[in-house]
Amino acid sequence: MSAIVSADLVLTGGTVWCGKDLDRAEAIAFWGGRVLAVGTAADLASLIGPDTRVVDLAGRFAMPGLNDAHMHLIPYGTSMAEMDLRPSEVQTLEGLLDVVRAQAASTPKDEWLIGRGYDHFKLDVGRHPYREELDQAAPDHPVYIVRTCGHLSVANSRALELAGITEDTRSPPGGLIERQNGRLTGLLAENGRDAVMQVLPPANVDELVASIERGGRDLLSYGITSCTEAAVGIRDGWTEMLAYQKAHRERRLPVRVYATLMGDKSRNVLPEAMGAGMISGSGGDMFRIGPVKIFTDGSAGGRTAAMTRPYLGGEDKGLLCLPSDELNEMVAAAHDAGYRMAIHAIGDAAIDQVLDALEAALAKTPDPGRRHRIEHCGWLRPDQMERMVAAHILPAPQPAFLYYFGDLYLTLLERERIEASHPMRTWLERGLHPSASTDCPVVEIDPRPNLYTMITRKTQQGKLLGADQALTLDEALEAYTYAGAYAAHEEGIKGRLTPGQLGDVAVFDTDFFTAVEAGEPERLLEVQCDLTILGGQVVYRREGAAI
What is the CATH number of the domain that holds 218? Predict the structure, then answer.
């Protein structure tokens, strides 16, 4: 007679959403860091032993831990210690300059002042700050502030001087160093930022580990247990990988990370990764090596996403960061070495370029199961959809962009183009498993606007954009769980709550389905994460939440 295993932890008395098309449960048990069983409270009663921890859900809603399939954990954690210029904090130009002044007053002269998150569209002046305005706010410091999209920035005169940018410096290929009336405005876009980025003070390993911890703990507070770190090496090169290794080794990694490797022309950690034997898929359940990242264009909100048709109010079509022949060579080399690809392409011109490169690499070295990805992939055409289906190239979109930026998009592009963008339903129906993510710190890490917009297709101001692409709640939750795992080749171990899967769970104070079925999807924007469980252990508890 075999002994009955006693669970380490049992959640009971609530609603457990186990995954799309799976029966909901009342209770779930964990043992050894994994799901042991799901079912009714009576079904699991025999698994409760003297050492089992039992948590009464008291009617709360439990689901697989959320998986943000494209965000920047190190930059997010770093930005939390820098000037906070997000629209939630700063709505006016004078307010932005006040933040810079305050930081300058508490920072020794000549040290850098760095901030992130401003949105010129949401500032009262409706434009980017000028370098002279930053000069006046901080005359004794180099200042560098980054727009919310991460693709445009403004530098003051001292920062430009340190970077060697003068009135005679020309914009580089694939970049912009803006001038008005023949003078530098301080605005830099895409490759035009490189000279400043090269003179920013580098972070050391310990500082980056602190960023990983800081950002990761915040993710846990939203029920996020896994993420794709979308660009290891983007700012501090191989030091970022060393920081991840140290965080993992010292058990200071709060969430599971799928690490994308920068393999860009000017920011490339691929040689070091190859030398260390870090190939896509290697690693473990807490830290795994993912695909190779290359940038091909910018952002729609910054008018730098590369389009085949111009933006409204001009003839500009955005920027392509690389010539096609260079991209083809880079993709072929990484693909032949066994790497998966995760290439940034937002506009349809950039998506054309990426599809050409991926198709050529797959034709030369076939691998139907590689699951290359196009990051963002927001503004694609129907013919490009067919090419993605044929090669099983996955989209990694951010539906929340429509929530946060949809009202801006309406000033930049024709409505029909916007309504056809981020086609979640079509991707889903064509078998491409669209995942959900935030690109944080581009937008808030908060998963609630993502879920809300996936099922409503509404912007922050309530405008409806492309109702035919809305998802059901089941489908939206799958995008945030199973589809994120599928995009990382990890669907066998996470994304659903079935026996043997990793014991990662998010518990919320409100049943999502009750809110939506009552015709009140706006309530999704107000739900609170009460508990987060990673590997069968409670790792976050909201203050005041029952346990």
Answer: 3.20.20.140
